[in-house]
Amino acid sequence: MLLALIGCGGHTPRGLGALADQAKVLGHRGAAGLGPENTEPAFQAANDLGVGFELDVTLSSDGEVVVIHDDDLDRTTTGAGAVSETPWVTIAELDAGSWLDPKWAGTTVPKLDEVLEKHAGQGLIDIELKTTPQKKELAKAVVDAVRRHDAVGQVVVTSFDPYLLGEVAALEPGILRGQLTATFKEADLNLLEKLVLRHVGLKRKSLPDFIAVEHVRANKRFVRRWQRRGYPVLAWTVNDPARMAELFALGIDGIITDRPDLGLKAAKR
To answer: What is the pTM of this model?
Structure first.
């Protein structure tokens, strides 16, 4: 049973191809150490450094692709309640910057379309699909947005949810897919569920092209094992310069960091 869940048969990952160099250093949630996460100031901070960035998406109650990390609005906006139960017209009016610093007051929550309109083609954009019961709807909405902006070869999609990645693969095979994995120490899961998720990079449904791993799991053995199987390995979220240097010394293919300015310095060393 377990082998069936984590097996992938004859799947051959495509790697990152022409996007490999751009994946060396990616800003996390834009550049969350340099501006309010998942907002335009953070995306622009990454672009100003000449690097791409990761962002998170989920659906509003009326089906708009909202760029936000949490399931609810409480932590990073002046709103409250579940994103999935709030219409876009309400979300669009919220302040998404003052929670971090008053100087960011007036910063808004963006839609994926808005981010792609401004930033597609300027650097790699890693779109993380948040786990949701609306798998088909979210996957289709994201693929439609990527196509609208002719960005199929300029983005990757990642998720912890292999079924979401499978939906994306069915709709648009040309988009490269990355399987997220972590220690899941804090997750409310049983032992079997954690075991399956920790090895989900080879799960039959997701058929990923690369692995994005919580950096504490990225030791030499882990990195080499996946790279030998043809999977580039990215590590997240790495903010300590010493750890960045350690990962690059291990041969990691890329890091995702709140501080891409520090990441660029570590990559050069």
So the answer is: 0.93
Distances (CA, A) of 125 to 3, 117, 139: 33, 12, 16
CA atoms within 13 A on the CB side of 179: 28
What single letter denotes the amino acid at residue 74? D
What was the pLDDT predicted at 88? 98
Q: 204 phi and psi, to 5 degrees?
A: -55, -35
Average pLDDT for 60-68 = 98
Tell me how far CA of residue 185 lies from CA of 181, 190, 193, 195, 240, in angstroms: 12, 11, 12, 11, 21
Q: Could you give the angle at the alpha carbon of 234 between the alpha carbons of 237 and 50, nearest 5°?
A: 75
What's the CA gap between 22 and 25, in Å, rounded? Answer: 7
Kindly calculate the radius of gyration of the chain based on its CA atoms and give it in whole angstroms. Answer: 18
Cβ atoms 99, 77 nearer than 8 A: yes
Q: What mean pLDDT do residues 26-36 have?
A: 98
* The predicted structure's pLDDT at residue 193: 54
Q: Pull the structure tokens for residue 108.
A: 């808004």
Residue 246 has pLDDT above 50, yes or no: yes
For 96, the token pair is 């998404």
Residue of 124, 145, 132, 147 lying closest to 54 (CA atoms): 124
**Averaged confidence pLDDT in the chain:** 91
Q: Please, what is the angle between helix 112-119 and helix 135-148, to 10°?
A: 30
What's the CATH code, domain 12-268?
3.20.20.190
Dump pLDDT digits (tens) for 189-222. 555 555 556 565 445 677 899 999 999 999 999 9
| Cα separations in angstroms, 141 against 47, 108, 136, 153 | 25, 21, 8, 17
